[in-house]
Amino acid sequence: MSEPTFKQRARYWFDNTMSKGTKALIGWLTVITLALTAIGALFLAIVNDADGFGGTLWKSFIHILDAGTITGDDAGGPAMVVMFITTIGGLVILSSLVGVLTTGLDAKLEDLRKGRSLVVEKDHTVILGWSDQVFIVISELVEANESEKRAVIAILADRDKVEMEDEIRTKIADLKSTHVVCRTGDPADPDSIGLVNPGQAKSVIILTSAEDDPDAQLVRSLLAVTQGGNGIKCHVVGAVAEGRNLPAARLAGGRAAHIVDANDLMARLMVQTCRQSGLSVVYTDLLDFGGDEIYMVEEPGLFGRPLSQALHSYRTSSFIGVLTKEGRCIINPPSSASLQPGDKLILIAADDSAIVLDGSRPVIDESVIVARADAGNRPERTLILGWNAMSRTILEQLDQYVAPGSVTDVVSDHPDAPEAIRKIGPTMRVQGLNFKEDDTTDRVLLESLNPGSYNHIIALCSDDVAPQLADSKTLVTLLHLRDMAQRSNSRFKVVSEMADDRNRTLAQVTQADDFIVSDKLISLLLTQTAENPHLSQVFGQLFSPDGSEIYLKPADHYVRPGVPVNFYTVAESARRRGETAIGYRVAALAKQAPDYGVHLNPDKGLQFMLQPGDKIIVLAED
To answer: Residue limits of the CASTOR/POLLUX/SYM8 ion channel conserved domain (predicted)?
Structure first.
């Protein structure tokens, strides 16, 4: 091949220069302007040198910049022709400049719309991915950051930046002191993740993807965050949809990651809630930032003293456990154990400012304390209407809670249910398992089941249809159960799952005992863990059948009903039973939103009166 010609080289150099964009175009227009000014001045000096070359240079420049200058020229002949040509050249240059600037500005606005600039923030919260969970997470972070002057949330998702911002403004009216920054990019690409500056963030939350295999996306994002060269020093939280992917996700995230099994967690909560009405309200209160939350504080004044003293040392906070200096979380520890230097108390409080050590002596009324033992577990009958990915775990968890001789009946037309029941049936240790393949919205079927004969009824959302359709079918089932209960003048203890939190309000007319919204509770848990990583241990123990859990037990097992009492006395009665009291539930208010009769972390000094049917909320081993 022959050597490139001078023309080819010049053309190549010019093309490279022009490819540099708006700056190069403005540079070329500047060069052309100066060249045209010099040429016009030269010709004007030749035909009319009265002003000298300096004067003609200025006159030529003015004619290029302002076409109207030519109307004031008094020269004629050749000088007028030169100035006319110069003015025409100036018009071409200025119009080109306007076009270049407009194009450059449009390109810059388009770049801003794409959201590809670096987020220059520190101690901010990073959210990777986009789903309906993002609005719950942002709302909770806004509540958590309310006391801060300026908090920042940086979101990276494979969506248009402006669309994300518009949707956030629509769904969340008041961001208070929190500023939300959106960036467009792949949440599993290290280079894109670098845009939200995770190296200087305080936490990273990875949302569950809407893809067919969300766990694969989660693992990719975890690897991109922890191994992508972004210098991550903060903790990362996320949730897997299937428990079999949990080891891989934790391996990808490393020590900095706190990964939870969403289906397993919700199945545990569903089982606990179906056996104890009101428990979901307690957990929601603990998980969101709107009411009481869990805090960990170091209290040097109590070092070396028994934990029974810590139990009564806070009037407006409730002691629930200890975080040891080794990092081990102990819920409902023995009250005789002592608090060691370096240990932290785990407390429930409305805010960290409400945690105040009370030096006064608690008033305990011994005359109202009773010592009534709990009734032993009896065989139970449970009816499960519907089937989804967490049904197997629900059955496994029920098998750990119920007494021998218990029976669970499952009714569903889900295509995966028959084979799953066939496999899980032989693994049940203490409960019998029956299955009927049928439509749970069929009134005739529901009547044939005799729901009033069951101790617990669980209505699940099917995952083989769209979430809204699944909620619609669940609502139909619940309405049938309500009507049947009214006609028979009886009451069924029903716990239902809702796929969409917006349908919870609609479901309240069915008068079910509790409604579990899986995505909402998982979002709340991830947000709490992002703010305080030690809470993953706390909630892990509370949701587990091993160790201490939250129970709602009859109030008359602790204090005499119908007698004024303060919560110091209730807490002392629970302590003598090896339990930790954290609140109570008034049965008469069980149907009234938003608290449904639940009073968590009450002021221990105020008196109230408990009636038969009311419950004490305690941490206990059984």
So the answer is: 264-355
Q: What is d(CA 142, CA 128) in angstroms, rounded to the nearest whole number?
A: 17
Q: Please tell me the distance from the alpha carbon of residue 212 to that of residue 42, in angstroms, as a whole number.
A: 73
Gyration radius of the chain's alpha carbons: 35
Angle between helices 52-65 and 78-114 (to 10 degrees): 50
List the one residue out of 548, 552, 524 whose CA is nearest residue 536. 524
Q: Helices 78-114 & 161-171, crossing angle to 10 degrees? A: 50
Q: Which range among 15-19, 46-50, 495-499 has the greatest average pLDDT?
A: 495-499
Cα(526)–Cα(288) distance, integer angstroms: 10
Q: How many CB atoms lie within 10 A of CB 349?
A: 19
**Alpha-carbon span 502 to 469, nearest angstrom:** 13
Q: Which residues pair with 260 in a beta bridge?
A: 239
Give the helix ranges, DSSP H, for 48-132: 52-65, 78-114
> Are 464 and 386 within 8 A, CB to CB?
no
Residues 6+ apart with CB under 8 A from 16: none
* CB 516, CB 524: distance < 8 Å: no
Nearest C-alpha neighbor of 187 from the set 212, 205, 165: 205
The confidence score (pLDDT) of residue 510 equals 61
Helix (H) or strand (E) holding 34: helix 22-47
List Cα–Cα distances, 330 to 319, 499, 537, in angstroms: 12, 33, 9
As beta bridge partners, residue 150 has: none
DSSP 509: G
pLDDT number for residue 144: 86
User: pLDDT, tens digit, for every residue of 462-489?
Assistant: 888 888 898 899 889 988 988 898 888 8
The average confidence (pLDDT) of the chain is 84
Order of all β-strands in the sheet with 431-437: 431-437, 406-412, 381-385, 456-459, 494-498, 514-517
Q: Which residues contact 197 (CB under 8 A, 6 or more apart)?
A: 118, 119, 120, 121, 124, 126, 154
**Which residues lie below 8 Å from residue 475, measured CB to CB, with a gap of 6+?**
503, 506, 507, 510
Dihedral of CA atoms 78, 81, 86, 89 in degrees, nearest 10, equals -150
| Section 163-177 average pLDDT | 90
Pairwise pLDDT comparison (149 vs 102), residue with the higher score:
149
Query: What is the pTM assigned to this prediction?
Result: 0.78
Using alpha carbons, select from 122, 130, 121 the residue that is nearest to residue 523.
130
Mean pLDDT of 294-309: 90
pLDDT in tens, 365-410: 999 999 776 766 789 999 999 999 889 989 998 998 888 999 999 9
